Amino acid sequence: xxxxxxxxxxxxxxxxxxxxxxxxxxxxxxxxxxxxxxxxxxxxxxxxxxxxxxxxxxxxxxxxxxxxxxxxxxxxxxxxxxxxxxxxxxxxxxxxxxxxxxxxxxxxxxxxxxxxxxxxxxxxxxxxxxxxxxxxxxxxxxxxxxxxxxxxxxxxxxxxxxxxxxxxxxxxxxxxxxxxxxxxxxxxxxxxxxxxxxxxxxxxxxxxxxxxxxxxxxxxxxxxxxxxx
Length: 229
Description:
Elements: E1 2-5, H1 6-13, H2 29-32, H3 35-45, E2 48-53, H4 60-68, H5 71-75, E3 79-85, E4 93-94, H6 100-103, H7 112-120, E5 131-135, E6 145-148, H8 155-173, H9 180-190, E7 196-197, H10 203-216, E8 220-224
Parallel strand pairs: 2-3
Antiparallel strand pairs: 1-4, 1-8, 2-5, 3-8, 5-6, 6-7
């Protein structure tokens, strides 16, 4: 599976018709995650976002699922799947199961994913890791939904839940009669999957905070390249 840093994908979405890339103008997380740049990313992607949050040395079943290679195909064309690699990544790179040998050496006390989750649920107790955050938009006022994977102990169980979640999110994105969060919540409830709806936190602000947390922990937010058409 080939992944690319989120920064590269945002910069690619800003390239104009002449092929000029605006990467030289990106100086920090606040600039990179500005409304203008995130709007360009969302326009280029035309879908919704799923952020897999985990501690790779603790949540091994989720880490194995992410590196096994099916995340991209499971997410499909509508869901832009993001996750955090516990290393600095500057360009596209191959990630496979061999990456686990590096991931499991991470200090169990360092948990950037938990910090990101607490940032998302600042006004209420954060749900348990690992899990998937579904985000309709970073720049419009939308409500995130968090699906915990804490009960999944095998790669097969993780994959089964994620496939249902991605399918539900895709169907919700394609409907317009009710809000995205309402559609997702209703279908997850029917499927017997528990979830938590987020509050009034700005998701643009949260993404900035998440990027800073990743950087402070020598990590990088990445996405499966094939999802970014």
